[in-house]
Design a protein that fits this description.
mainly alpha; about 45% helix; Arc Repressor Mutant, subunit A
């Protein structure tokens, strides 16, 4: 699965909020600075995350908090909310598998399916609480979450 730049920025933003704590609001400019997310992209990303039930706007303008505890938000949840299921090959996508003329006899499909399942399980089993505890992308660390 290729992780888009937009999804990386969304993950950095959610990690910034996760380090802050569940239901502790944070201003958009602080999320941008702490998560190293371009400020001009963050409102649209936060809108997508709000629609997915990952973040919620606070009472104040341009202030957000997590909608769920970091332990209840997986990296997989976030990635699917930003870029869809992330099928690595057309034949794995139930809506597009008929496009593959050799799907019935393909020797590679089981390998691709196994790889997709393995990566998805890893993303689904990694929560933002796990990431916050590991200190990934801590302010000033110079390390990114999904570089």
């Amino acid at each position: 699965m290729v992780v888009s730049k937009r999804a990386r920025y969304a993950a950095q933003a959610v990690l910034a909020l996760s380090r802050r704590g569940h239901e502790r609001p944070m201003a958009v400019e602080d999320i941008a600075a702490d998560g190293r997310v371009p400020a001009e992209l963050l409102p649209a990303i936060l809108s997508d995350l709000t629609a997915a039930g990952i973040v919620k706007p606070a009472d104040a303008r341009d202030v957000y908090s997590l909608d769920r505890a970091p332990a209840d938000i997986s990296l997989g949840d976030l990635l699917r909310s930003i870029q869809g299921p992330g099928y690595t090959h057309t034949c794995l996508d139930p809506e597009r598998e008929m496009e593959c003329a050799s799907r019935a006899s393909c020797m590679l499909r089981p390998i691709w399916q196994s790889e997709y399942d393995l990566v998805r399980r890893r993303y689904d089993s990694t929560t933002f609480q796990d990431l916050a505890r590991r200190g990934l992308a801590a302010p000033g660390s110079g390390r990114g979450l999904l570089a």
